[in-house]
Amino acid sequence: MTRNKQKGLLYATTTAFLWGILPIALIGVLVTIDPFTTTFFRFLIAAVILTPALIFKGKLKHRKKYFEKKIILQFSIAGVLLCINYALYIFGLNKTSAEAAQVMMQVAPVCLLLAGVFLFKERFSKMQWLGLLIFISGLIMFFSPRYEDVFTELNTYGSGLMILLAAALTWVFYAVFQKNLLKDFSAQETMVVFYWLGVLFFFPLSTFESLVNLTTFQWLLVIFCGLNTLVAYGSFSEALTHIEASRVSAILATTPLITLVFVQISPVTVLIPEPLTLTVILGAFFVVTGSIITSTAKN
């Protein structure tokens, strides 16, 4: 860790900002092309840009290890999990809203911390358990206007939330596998493999006939989504080299609030904002606060 606090905070803030506005751009594309095709282009753009950049800079230092049987198996499992995560996320987003998607995805880092407790016998402090309680309370408050959609009728919105929850849990399993891969590879070396695996995974599922219906603005959104995938993950990796993971997590926990603000000011007319009642707003703040406390309040 290089311990450059200013750089670390800048990279983490960049990641939070990019992830905060990503669902808004995705919704602008999904009105014309399907989730599989959208995700295919996200992976393709990121892979096509990152691969030559790493080769040119000589950063594929461990490429010979790619062909070891154990490594191939680990990459395959982690890559499939990441692809499933991307697919579930965008399908859930398509059924709910940008704010709902970002709030629900905060379940992922919290569950990853809980996985450390149950799988690796790590300890939670009393403050972390309090943070978890605040987090769960925030989820209940944020989705309280949609209670019937989730627990009674399980309509399109309710099923979308269940899909987003599955996406968050899938990401936890992916993160565990990637953690093992980072013992042998840099973050960029793993991501370039995952991007190409994503291209192969989503290519046969994509339908390209609808691309002719994209407007110029929507094509710009597609390109932005691909660049967002590349830059956000790159900034996330860089942030971890400068500041502690807990600080990075604390900054990334603000992502739902960024989405909440930008949905209100976004020119994308297809957005359907969540009802901003006092309970919903407090719920969003509780989710963010609970996530920050859970990730930072160590023993």
Mind explaining what this structure looks like?
It contains 13 helices and no strands. The protein is mostly helical and 299 residues long. The protein has one domain. The longest helix has 27 residues, at 69-95. The model has no long low-confidence stretch (mean pLDDT 85).
Summarize the structure.
Helices cover 76% and strands 0% of the residues. It is mainly α and 299 residues long.
Low-confidence stretches: none
**What value does the Rg take, in angstroms?**
19 Å
Q: Sum up the overall morphology in one term.
A: globular
* Structural class designation: mainly alpha
Pattern of helices and strands: HHHHHHHHHHHHH
User: Would you count the extended β strands for me?
Assistant: 0
Largest sheet: none
Give the N-to-C terminal Cα separation.
22 Å
Total helical segments: 13
* Average pLDDT, all residues: 85
Taken together, the total number of domains comes to 1
Strand fraction equals: under 5%
Secondary-structure blueprint:
Elements: H1 5-30, H2 35-57, H3 69-95, H4 98-105, H5 107-119, H6 126-142, H7 147-152, H8 156-181, H9 187-202, H10 216-242, H11 245-252, H12 255-265, H13 278-296
Helix pairs in contact: 1-4, 1-10, 1-11, 1-12, 2-9, 2-10, 3-8, 3-9, 4-8, 4-12, 5-8, 6-13, 11-13
